[in-house]
Write a structure and sequence with these properties.
single chain, mainly alpha
């Protein structure tokens, strides 16, 4: 039995180390170009992967349970994502930034300024969260690189249906006087202000789900530590059947926590403005659905 546990632990540890090594990447041999099979991994993800390996090995060495080591490593990677509302808060900030920028741009267009000039002026005071896309949009139109292409690229960079609506209004306004476009942008800004207010209320209510999720995680961790330290209570988990039962329990907890996390999230609606670049998935969407979404 001891040999089986040790062998299982060694296999899990080797798998974690190899997975971390593959995620972090390695230096190619001289004369061989670097591979681009995996996407670029951020430093934060690299640190989390290393921490997961360390925590998994510590849990394995302390308990002698391979399943617990694998579960601990998985928890280090997944739990911060399950309990975080960063994506929801960022989308709210993007909507708020678009609302402020749309109002500013509408005022500039109503003052009989051309679209390129108005965009260049609005880029100087654009909110920080959308400053880079707005600046790229203003520079693209100033360089006369194709208004439709530049506006669709702006919508792709924003990556939100609200950005699609603003870009669509500007595409329609291209080559026309800015008065009508200003009215449309002002109406869109009012809609965005209502969306931001609603999202803030919903976020405040759904924060209770995230608090419940954190309490459940804390209780599970405390009980796990108790089981590891109290060998007389947790002795059945050291058997092969006990390890199988522990794996089932861990999967059930992960499924329940994922369900609670989905309850605390606000699903983003689908975008409707297709990219103009060839091979884009959005560009291949059928025309009738695009027309319905535009309306």
């Amino acid at each position: 039995m001891t040999i089986m546990v040790a062998l299982g632990g060694a296999l899990i540890a080797s798998g974690l180390v190899l997975a971390c090594h593959e995620i972090l990447g390695h230096r190619p041999r001289p004369g061989i170009p670097p591979r681009s099979v995996l996407p670029r991994v951020s430093p934060a993800t690299q640190r989390r992967a290393l921490l997961a390996v360390v925590v998994g090995l510590i849990a394995l060495l302390v308990s002698g349970w391979p399943v617990l080591g694998l579960t601990a490593a998985t928890a280090v990677i997944l739990l911060p994502r399950l309990s975080s509302a960063r994506a929801s808060r960022r989308r709210t900030a993007v909507l708020e930034g678009l609302e402020q920028w749309a109002r500013r741009l509408a005022d500039l267009l109503s003052a009989s300024r051309g679209l390129a000039d108005a965009l260049e002026a609005s880029a100087r005071s654009a909110p920080e969260i959308i400053a880079a896309p707005v600046t790229a949009l203003a520079r693209g139109l100033a360089a006369r690189s194709g208004s439709d292409t530049v506006l669709r690229a702006f919508a792709d960079e924003i990556g939100d249906p609200a950005g699609d609506r603003i870009a669509a209004a500007l595409i329609i306004a291209t080559g026309r006087r800015g008065g009508a476009a200003g009215d449309v942008l002002r109406t869109l800004a009012e809609q965005l202000a209502g969306d931001v207010a609603s999202r803030r209320d919903i976020d405040a209510e759904r924060a209770e789900h995230r608090t419940t999720l954190k309490w459940i995680v804390g209780v599970v961790i405390t009980f796990t530590v108790f089981c590891v330290l109290n060998r007389s209570f947790s002795a059945p988990f050291g058997t092969p059947l006990g390890q199988l039962v522990l794996a089932v329990i861990a999967l059930l907890y992960l499924a329940g926590l994922s369900w609670l996390q989905r309850l605390g999230n606000i699903a983003a609606p689908a975008r409707f403005l297709a990219s103009s670049q060839p091979g884009s998935a959005a560009a291949s969407s059928p025309a009738p659905s695009h027309a319905r979404a535009t309306r």
